[in-house]
Amino acid sequence: EYFKRPERTLNAFFSVDGTFTQEILNEVMRTDRSTKMVLYSAAKMQTKTFKDLMLKRNDFNNMLKMNEALRAVIPDESLGDVELKNIIKEKTANAVASCYKDSDKIKAYINGDIAFDEVWSIVKSTKLGYDAPAKCDYIESFGDDDFIMRCIAVLGGSI
Predict the structure, then answer these.
(1) d(CA 51, CA 33)
(2) For 62-91, what is each residue's pLDDT tens digit?
(3) DSSP designation for 117
(4) Those residues with Cβ within 8 angstroms of residue 115's Cβ, 6 or more apart along the chain or in another chain
(5) Residue 41 in contact with residue 11, Cβ under 8 Å?
(6) pTM of the entire structure?
(7) What is the Cβ-side half-sphere exposure of residue 50, based on CA atoms within 13 angstroms?
């Protein structure tokens, strides 16, 4: 019966509080099978939990997919494009700045509040490997704006 009407089965499953968890979400995103249907059902049946888990994500593409699901089933609960981009920018700035001792100053530069020459001594004295601090699909999602170019300048100066 599940295969005939999987959305009804998912709705029944997610109608019970606590059935949509971080572990379930990770598995859904990892397997990428019926992702859209599962996300729509979870967003509809457990909106608060769904939104909380969405806001905790660091992988932007999945955060965008989850917001699309919210927008499709409960538009008033979804985030606007500007709000979502600001959250993603904040997460990106935190991830980059966390690699440096004076993270507040690095974050100020990334956010455009101070000039690069004010952080250059911090950047050049920090050596990072070639592995990224967090998977970031910012350019793919939003393009190469000044914000992400500042992130790249900071990280690139420390390699």
Answers:
(1) 21
(2) 899 999 999 999 999 999 999 999 999 999
(3) G
(4) 109
(5) yes
(6) 0.81
(7) 26
